[in-house]
Amino acid sequence: MIRLTPLGTAVPPEVSAFLDWARDANPRVDLDVDSGVGARGEAMSSTLVKGTHHITYCPGRAQEDVDFVTTVLGQRLVKQTVLMDGSIPIHHLYYGNADADIGSITTSFPYSRRAGRPGSGQIEATCYAVPSGATTFWRAHLDRYGVAHEGILERFGQRVIRLRHPAGLSFELTETVRDTRRPWTTSGITADVASRGFFGAVMSVRDVVEQERFLIDALGFRKVGVDGAYHRFSLPGGEFDHTIDLHHEPDRAPGSWVFGAGTFHHIAFHVETDAELVQQKALYEELGYTDASEIKDRYYFHSMYVRSPGGILVECTANAPGGFFQDEAPDELGTKLHLPPWYEEQRADIIERLEPLDVPMEFRPRSGVLATRPVVASSGGARPSAIPLSRTRAAFASKKR
To answer: What is the DSSP letter of 13?
Structure first.
């Protein structure tokens, strides 16, 4: 349970109103402001965070991103939708393994409108898990496509190969064992070498101490080792999609925080329910991370964001009922442009301004495909929720340029 300790003896009316709402919306959250229990109380005995949900980056052109991620990295195109913040139509592309598992999903906002500035305070690399011995294949595969990489290296006793996306972003392939997640395969990448999903992520920080405190106190990680400038953290209870490496770079200039090509935007961690999002937000605020966002409706999941001390934007996410299967059967994932119901009436205006995209043949709509799992019925734009949800209400037609 989480107990909020007030700064003073009097509770302001607006805080009292929030506590009343939170008790009604989530009886599992104990918000006893009179208890005096601090942030290292019962909430610290376990973590709500189950692992990495997704990692989001900004490439340049959408076509370049789709071609690279599906052909070179061998990922499945899982979803085509749009950025749900702002009034400029920007693709939001989701990639993952064969089953679109949580912990395998990278998402991109192709943002050629503006270049970002890579630096500290950002995700430095997204790390995929590949089978033991597979980095030898990947080195030759990357050479075949002319992809820049750093060769096979070793970190924490594991073989790793770091490569560059055409937009300059870094991805890593880390050798692991006993990963039973089902990979997506292509004509050039077979199951014995294909990536299974995330191993984790690397964060670049100028100072380790405060980011370490955040990972441990706010997210439930534990520190498991140091290898040179890299400090490794892991969530209890899992081997894969549970690892964060902090790369200590005290002299590296801070990177940009806005949408911008060539930078990672945020990392999202998975919690089970909307009620746990409320608990996580309360924990942030109890620890003093008071700039946590409202809970946002992303249609496929609900999200809450906070800027961590090292500068990295951290999201916590709970899947909406049906998740990615609300509007597509598993065998049809990623084959059509889908909009949240509250944008559907503006579809024509959005498509008119959206960057053209020619997806590979294997990700185009197919006829006569028997779905192994039915589409989950959605109640449309007025889905009930036990908690208040925030949505951007953009008018795309009124802002054509």
So the answer is: H
Q: Do 21 and 101 lie in a common domain?
A: no
Closest CA to 70 of 40, 106, 27: 106
133 backbone dihedrals φ, ψ, rounded to 5°? 90, -10
Would you say residue 165 has pLDDT above 90? yes
Across the strands, what pairs with 388? none
In terms of domains, do 84 and 67 share one? yes
Work out the end-to-end distance of the chain between its first and last CA atoms, rounded to an integer number of angstroms: 50
Backbone angles phi, psi at 395, to 5 degrees: -115, 95
**Residues pairing with 111 in the sheet:** none
Alpha helices in 124-177 (DSSP H): 135-144
The mean of the pLDDT values for the chain is 86
User: Going edge to edge, which strands form the sheet with 197-205?
Assistant: 149-155, 158-164, 170-176, 122-131, 197-205, 243-248, 230-234, 222-227
- Kindly state the tokens that stand for 379: 């109640």
Domain co-membership, 70 together with 168? yes
Mean pLDDT of 183-196: 96
User: Whole-angstrom Cα distance, residue 1 to residue 21?
Assistant: 17
Whether residues 40 and 55 share a domain: the answer is: no
Q: Specify the length of the chain in residues.
A: 401
